[in-house]
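Q: Convert this sequence to structure tokens.
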Amino acid sequence: MLARFTPTWMIDATYDIAPKELKQLGIRVVLTDLDNTLIAWNNPYGTEELREWMTALARENIRLVVVSNNSHQRIKKAVASLQLPYISRALKPLSLGIRRALKQYQVEASEAVMVGDQLLTDVAAANGSGVKSILVRPILPSDAWTTKFNRFAEKFVMRAIRHQHPELNFRKDLMNERD
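A:
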């Protein structure tokens, strides 16, 4: 049961994920959650750091696609200034949204990675679809009200995962084992 919620990697922040390392791993598409992963849940404009990361991904010919449980209107408004493609109503933790993205962007599961800040939705959906997953720390310590229950439950799941996988810790990059 824990395997469904166990991330492939745990990285401190989305912007710490090096596009060159993704390229070396054969990744062609980065699927990412929106709120508290790509942008702060209460700030739809993003940051300069996000724009630099997006540029670095583009230099490596890696597409960035938002896969979110939010409505079409919410995501459209949030990513308008970023001009990012997206899959709305992804129904995470089900793998439907991720499978739609894989089909739409014509990539195999091995060529994609899902980045998210929640075990019970983002990581579960990635693992259910055979896509590698990167759990990141939330951008903000606060959440929208709809996420608070998941955060509470995740504490228990994370404790069990760390017991089973003591080597799994938040770190700065994908390739090195350092924290």
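The chain has six helices and six strands.
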